[in-house]
Design a protein that fits this description.
alpha/beta; Rossmann fold; Zinc Finger, Delta Prime, domain 3; elongated; binds zinc ion
């Protein structure tokens, strides 16, 4: 897939394509923003463009280099970061020590060597300082792409060595339009766009079955929050690891947001065609009698507050507790 075809914010694409065409792509790049999947995809496609056998300044997506890179099976494109099941919070200096000799060596099979750092904000200070030395004078064939949703946590010394590219969230309306044009039914497209956090790439890779299973779990929490005196949003989740807890809470809050919106719409006798969870209409109507529009508005506001707290990497367990206390008070 050429760069021009990935679904990310247009300005980033234009800037990258122009830099490639002029042969002036900086060796150290910082991708930041909330579209994590969009950033990762772009980093891979850019690595293809730097190694493509058929195209000069873009990726064909079909030659053997392009294909190997997308499968993470190309020795000169190296993805670095903590694995999902890794309990460590930071990437230590040992990992930069491994990078250093490789960064100086000529590429083995490709034209350029690319290091992609996922969640670059997790680098320890020592690791960042060691990396800085390489970033200062990289060989012309070595590129670094640092990806982060938290640029503020990247040391200023590193940031100043990198050319920044901001991946802005894509407007949900645009995502809905794209999904519909790809054949998704409008109701499904609206829910997916809302869960996709401004990332078309995320929307397109969503597993609908999984969304529905997760939504069912969230819906059970939601119902018990409204109907029971003691609702437990926290307990079922506290046993999970902190990274999982963050993900679970984020998923629940995204669904809660859609439930609150739907309930409010029903409270105000709005157009039922606009419901984000039309299949839950009857169950929602049952809950409607137990809540007020103010409660729904408060819920929307709080869910958004929790989501933005999670984006800023605030403590997920405290955020969950805060939500619980605030919603209880409102009931
Ligand atoms: Zn190619």
């Amino acid at each position: 897939m050429p760069l021009s075809e990935i679904y990310i914010h247009g300005e980033v694409k234009k800037a990258l394509l122009a830099s490639l065409a002029m042969g002036k792509l900086a060796n150290s790049l910082l991708f930041f923003g909330q579209d994590e999947l969009g950033m990762k995809k772009t980093a891979l496609v850019l690595s293809q463009a730097l190694n493509c056998e058929r195209m000069e300044n873009d990726a064909c997506g079909e030659c053997s280099s392009c294909r190997a890179i997308i499968k993470n099976n190309f020795p000169d494109v190296i993805i670095l970061g903590l694995k999902e099941d890794d309990d460590r919070k930071t990437l230590g200096i040992d990992f930069v020590r491994e990078v250093r000799p490789l960064a100086l060596m000529k590429p083995m099979v490709g034209k350029n060597r690319v290091f992609i750092f996922e969640e670059a904000e997790r680098m320890s200070i020592e690791a960042a300082n060691a990396l800085l030395k390489i970033l200062e004078e990289p060989p012309f064939y070595t590129y670094f792409i640092l990806i982060t949703t938290n640029p503020d946590l990247i040391p200023a010394t590193i940031r100043s060595r990198c050319r920044p590219f901001i991946f802005k969230a894509i407007n949900p309306e645009i995502i809905v339009g794209e999904l519909i044009s790809k054949g998704y039914e409008p109701g499904k497209a609206r829910l997916m766009a809302l869960l996709a956090q401004g990332s078309l790439e995320r929307a397109l890779t969503m597993d609908w079955e999984r969304i529905i299973t997760q939504r069912q779990k969230a819906w059970q929490f939601f119902q018990s929050m409204i109907t029971e005196d003691n609702f437990f949003l926290i307990d079922p989740l506290t046993s999970s690891k902190s990274l999982d807890f963050k993900r679970d809470l984020e998923m629940i809050m995204r669904h809660f947001l859609t439930f609150f919106r739907d309930l409010l719409l029903l409270e105000e006798n709005g157009d039922e065609n606009l419901l984000l969870n039309p299949d839950l209409t009857d169950e929602m109507k049952g809950l409607k009698l137990q809540v007020t529009p103010e409660f729904c508005l408060k819920g929307i506001e709080l869910s958004q507050e929790i989501l933005s707290g999670l984006e800023r990497n605030l403590n997920a367990k405290l955020l969950g507790l805060y939500f619980y206390v605030q919603m209880r008070r409102k009931k």
